[in-house]
Amino acid sequence: MSNLKYKTILLGVCGGIAAYKSAYLLRELQKQGAEVRVIMTRAAHDFITPLTFQALSGHVVYTDDYQSEQRGMEHIDLARWANAIVIAPATANFLARLAQGRAEDLLSSLCLAANIPLAVAPAMNREMWAQAATQANVELLRQRDITFFGPDSGEQACGETGDGRMLEPDVIVSLIANKLFSHGELAGKTIVVTAGPTHEAIDPVRFIANRSSGKMGYAVAQAAQEAGANVILVSGPTALQAPAKVKVINVVSAENMLQQVQNEISHCDIFISVAAVSDYRAATNAPQKLKKQETLTLELVKNPDILATIAEQHSDVFCVGFAAETNNVKEYALTKLQQKKLQLIVANQVSADAASVGFESDDNVLEIFGADGSHYEWERANKSQLARRLISLISEKYHAQHTS
């Protein structure tokens, strides 16, 4: 279970008799190297005190009362801090709120604000678990990629026997390691990711750029880190917060980006070129601001092709490229895959009629082509979700190549 080391986990505790097991679960997660913060619903206070979790975790316990005393944005901050959310115990009432997308307390608000793996460990009476309403909620949540740990079957606090018991803490820890962080196969690997646009100066106040926000590249870097890799993110100018536990090198121009990638690539296993690098730069960078004229002619020169350069100079590095196209997506992507001698090319359409995906959007639609002839089409989804799926695919392809 070493893939839990350094992972950040939010433990949500709902109001049920099984809440006492959550204290043991917290300690087991800590033994595996995870950092854990606890969020409790009001009902959970009737079964176990926040002070217990504060003493065990060494951190303040987040409750609705705590949120009301603070600036009220804890659900956003915590959602960005954590690698995963685990709710144990998860009551029938909470599953219903989660299925309905309600945000009436800190824990349910957090679940709506997070784009990270979410797992629930149900705990309730056997009749409550068997009820059609509960089962409908469970099915809906599973369709939304929420992971269920259990429930177990056995004697319950009410004296009855059947399905509904919360799994034992050691079993939940094993499931967290194997299901939520199953991409630990990239542990020990070093990955360089580029992200964002580049700015090519015209004069001290103007530059050539594009609409890239950097969101996809940052999501890929975060997903790679979650997969256990040592990640170096070479980023053009963005307004994004640095991904947790990722080394970030900020650059401005294409030439800057190439230089920094070359500085890092010698000890790199995988290179993922997500950045939307400007194809051209001004032939001359005016030392002073150019004055307004009726017309202005700029001479442009071609920028270095970072991905092609790295793939040619470092054939031992597993290279993945991105191709943002407005038309003929498949044709252009396959051409780049072959000409640049890549292992994978990830293509997405960024035309004005591309349903608000790609540049500047939180969502994307991806089409992926492999040098081995493989082809994947992934429907619209949040960039964080797509990034985790992509990292899983890259891991699979990388290991297949290095074990053949």
Please characterize this protein's 3D structure.
This protein is α/β, with parallel strands linked by helices and 404 residues long. The protein has 2 domains: 179 residues, Rossmann fold (3-Layer(aba) Sandwich), CATH 3.40.50; 220 residues, Rossmann fold (3-Layer(aba) Sandwich). It is 36% helix and 24% strand. The protein has an 8-stranded mixed beta sheet with strand order 12-11-8-13-16-17-18-19, sandwiched between helices. A 5-stranded parallel beta sheet has the order 2-1-3-4-5, sandwiched between helices. A hairpin with a 5-residue loop joins strand 6 and strand 7. It is elongated.
Quick overview:
The protein is 36% helix and 24% strand.
Per CATH, the class of the largest domain reads Alpha Beta
CATH fold call of the largest domain? Rossmann fold
Name the CATH superfamily assignment of the largest domain.
CoaB-like
The termini sit apart by 27 Å
* Radius of gyration using CA atoms only: 24 Å
How is the largest sheet built, in terms of strand order?
12-11-8-13-16-17-18-19
Largest sheet: 8 strands, mixed
Average pLDDT reading: 87
Total number of beta strands:
19
Domain tally? 2
Annotated CATH architecture of the largest domain: 3-Layer(aba) Sandwich
